[in-house]
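fyi for ur records
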Amino acid sequence: MLSEFQDTLLESVKAFQSTQLVMNKYENVLQHMDSGIMLFDSEGVLTFINVQMAKLLETPRHALIGCNLLQILLHPHLNQFKKRKILRIYRETIFYRKKNHEVIDEYGRHWLITVKYGDQMDGDFLLSVKDVSEFRQIEQTAYQNDKLAMLGKISAAIAHEIRNPLTTIRGFIQLLRPHLVQLGKDEYARIILAEIDRANDIIFEFLNSSKPTAPQMVVVSVYSLLKEVVLLTESEGHMKGCEINLLLSEDANMNVSIDVKQIKQVLLNIIKNALDAIEEVKCDHSGVINITAKPEGKYVNISIQDNGNGIDKTLLAHLFDPFFTTKEKGTGLGLSVSYRIVRNHKGTISVDSIKGAGTIFEIWLPMV
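which gave:
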């Protein structure tokens, strides 16, 4: 009888050890997932948090285990930004029954948050967080390309329909101009001609943004390219009280195969925007635009940084959209054209900005 009891006890111990090994294995898997995971029990107490989630919250795991939601919101290790996001997710989950949330953190990354609860969770709440920034970037790029393709169709359709009558109107105004001069109304003719020319310029920008000409590639030195761009813009910079610095030595051995005219158009457009942003700043400090270049793998990274007015973070995602502009008299086509030109060169372009502190544009071009 005793022997049977010992055998049963031994089997129970082995079964327990086996179960414990499996649980440890599963816990180890959860700990090292690339998604952040938190588990709250039915009383709202945090019973499990993995390594990734602790990193996202920038708080040690042991400091959070055993805390309820109120204690987490009052936790000294968590910053105010994260506390507000947690509270928002709690409200939307409890009051609006939302189980999927998407938030953008203070670093501009996109996170997909999923909350699971109900009978299948035995009263527990499982919260998982996954970084979807790369997917959003791919989605944004595809969306951008779709819009540019649509812009091409629109531009091709309207160009001939509008330009032809504008040319006719311009011709008749010029014929009537002597009569207007006799009536003392020459100013009217001048204004009409100027407005017609402006309309033609906008149509020309439409055509350029819809279908830039195929790049005529030549190999050029990055230094000589940037030096020429600085020479073209420094006089306007001086007029606006802005210093344009090329922080690159002449012996920097970096060459790119580009259409010089097109890439110069991109660089001049960005610098012009930087000058406008600096002009908007109503303060005593002088404007500065720093232009640098450095090799990054198979690419050359060209950056243009200013200390101008900056751009709100919420607007950055739309900056390369056709017709989107932050300027009162802008057409919203300059940066969309720049985006298309850089993409046609097998490169990439990005922007980052802090409102009130300045903006940095970065362009990556394949290096020869």
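The radius of gyration is 30 Å. thats all i got for now
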